[in-house]
Specification:
This protein is mainly α. The chain has helices at 23-47, 51-86. The protein has one domain (16-86). Helix content is 70%, strand content 0%. Bound molecules: zinc ion.
């Protein structure tokens, strides 16, 4: 789970009440799963490569994509939570 700062360093907004926990990973799994499976199926149909090509392509995409997407999506979820619930 990503931990968030207890409060905003600029305005002091309390983030503890806004923590969305592991909610962002659901979006990451859905997005990356859809992208990776679609690309893997198309790659298999168009090129029919050996299995190791799929491993080389999709494992880095999914792992790297999760690392890149998790923080922005968690920040977006916290912002949505603040906008809709906390005000
Ligand atoms: Zn702030």
């Amino acid at each position: 789970m990503l931990t968030i700062a207890p409060r905003c360093s600029k305005c002091g907004l309390d983030f503890a009440a806004l923590d969305t926990g592991d909610g962002a990973i659901a979006f990451v799994v859905l997005i990356l799963g859809a992208v990776a499976v679609t690309l893997a199926i198309l790659t298999e149909i168009w090129f029919a490569p050996p299995f190791w090509v799929h491993v080389l392509l999709w494992v880095p995409l999914v792992v790297g994509g999760a690392i890149l997407l998790l923080r922005p999506l968690k920040a977006w979820l916290i912002a949505q939570h603040y906008r809709r619930v906390a005000t």
